Amino acid sequence: MKIRAYAKVNLALDVVRKREDGYHDLEMIMAPITLHDLIYIEKIDQGIEITSNTNRMPTDERNIMYKVAQLLIERYHIPYGIKIHIYKHIPTQAGLAGGSSDGAAVLKAMNQMFRLNLSLETLAEIGKEVGADIPFCIYEKMAFVKGIGEQLEFINQDFHCYMLLVKPKKGVSTKKSFGMLDLKKLCIHLF
């Protein structure tokens, strides 16, 4: 089975507050874009195998695709394994949800391949356990997104534009960038 995993952009992003669990509550407007990874998935007797056209991503249990595949196999007692080959086009550490879109694509493909008949809502709930952007990537629709990425209000309006994406060789870790954020320095007090 072949499936495309579409990247996303944040058209707006506001950090609302830091949560007790270390994450940040956000308010964002996200939109899917045509840039995508191409993923081939096939059923195998057992296990999870991942190969790629790049060595810039892990292909073991650290990979989001591995995590969502393992979660589905265990939760729904799937008696098979899967082999995944990914042609990576979405740059890593670019804020484009490359890993999350890959995870969402694997969830959708396995849902179809193993005839699980899970709704998009259920797939989004499962994906949320692995990555905050996966619910958005399941639906692939422009949305106002809140919380850590799990609360979606869809924007039912066409949005067509051309965009130039520039990604230097060095990336930015989402965890590291939010960890360095000091909201006290960013707040303007109007007293």
From TrEMBL:
Enumerate the Pfam families for this protein. GHMP_kinases_N
Database matches in SUPFAM superfamilies: Ribosomal protein S5 domain 2-like (SSF54211)
- GO molecular function, a single term: 4-(cytidine 5'-diphospho)-2-C-methyl-D-erythritol kinase activity
Locate the active site.
Answer: K8, D133
Question: Residue limits of the GHMP kinase N-terminal domain?
Answer: 63-140
Listed InterPro entries: GHMP_kinase_N_dom, IspE, Ribosomal_Su5_D2-typ_SF, Ribsml_uS5_D2-typ_fold_subgr
Going by the UniProt record, its keywords in alphabetical order are: ATP-binding, Isoprene biosynthesis, Kinase, Nucleotide-binding, Transferase
Q: Name the residues that bind ATP.
A: P91, T92, Q93, A94, G95, L96, A97, G98, G99, S100, S101
Pathway(s) this gene product operates in, as recorded in its UniProt entry: Isoprenoid biosynthesis; isopentenyl diphosphate biosynthesis via DXP pathway; isopentenyl diphosphate from 1-deoxy-D-xylulose 5-phosphate: step 3/6
Q: List the catalysed reactions.
A: 4-CDP-2-C-methyl-D-erythritol + ATP = 4-CDP-2-C-methyl-D-erythritol 2-phosphate + ADP + H(+)
The EC number on file is: 2.7.1.148
What the entry lists under PANTHER family is as follows: 4-DIPHOSPHOCYTIDYL-2-C-METHYL-D-ERYTHRITOL KINASE, CHLOROPLASTIC
Q: Which family does it belong to?
A: Belongs to the GHMP kinase family. IspE subfamily.
What this protein is reported to do is described as: Catalyzes the phosphorylation of the position 2 hydroxy group of 4-diphosphocytidyl-2C-methyl-D-erythritol.
What is the protein name given in its UniProt record?
A: 4-diphosphocytidyl-2-C-methyl-D-erythritol kinase
Organism taxonomic ancestry: Bacteria, Bacillati, Bacillota, Erysipelotrichia, Erysipelotrichales
